[in-house]
Amino acid sequence: MVALIAAAEAAALLVAAGWYAYELLSGSPVLSFWGAVFTLGLLLAFSAWLFAVSVFLYRGYRWTRAAALVAQLFLLSVGVPAITSGLMLAGLAMVVPAVIAIVLLFSNRVINHASRTGSAPPAL
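The structure corresponding to this sequence follows.
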């Protein structure tokens, strides 16, 4: 379930990056073109990272719990100010999945599933 939430968040980031790229290419005014390109690169990189986290979380790797938690905390740090500034729907779309994912990340079922450390090193 947490892997699905992370994958959905990654897909949402990819959609946001596509919309951002469309707006950038259609000539929307920006203060700095290269700053906007950098922001687009960050959106794409974070989406790819979150997709990787969701795949490896589904596979049961231990390190993914920390990575997923960091992603959820980032979403909370953006979603809560969005709610308080009047963007209720967008803020709730970020906060609700993040809170659900955080609760699930600390559930015994997810902790037991995400206990794989990786493959053993090759023997000589």
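The chain has five helices and no strands.
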